Amino acid sequence: MPKPEIEFIDCDLKYEWRPVEGDKYGIMEKILSHDPETGDYTRLLKFPPGTETEETLVHDFWEEVWIVEGSLYDIAKEQTFLAGYYACRPPGMIHGPYRIPYGCVTFEQRYYK
Length: 113
Prior knowledge:
By secondary structure, this protein is mainly β. It contains 1 helix and 9 strands; from the N terminus they run H-E-E-E-E-E-E-E-E-E. It has one helix at residues 11-14; strands at 18-19, 28-34, 41-47, 51-52, 62-74, 79-82, 86-89, 98-100, 104-111.
């Protein structure tokens, strides 16, 4: 079944924050929609203040990220990205690691086209 049809809903009431599977930093997520056949999904991701990741990331899927609130610092690029910043990462694009001194919430879409 593809991602469900959803009319506007209050995500604070409808979805609960849950730990990201396999995460060791305390990062939480709200899965907003998911297609179990393709693995595509949309989520909110919340990084607690003081998070500093160690991994350089690379994926086999497309990833689009919008910073909703807070900021994150890309350690490798030595750049800070603020609320309102957007990234579109094709499969194979290298990113991270990150330092999130004050916390951050992102809106993220992942898909395998």
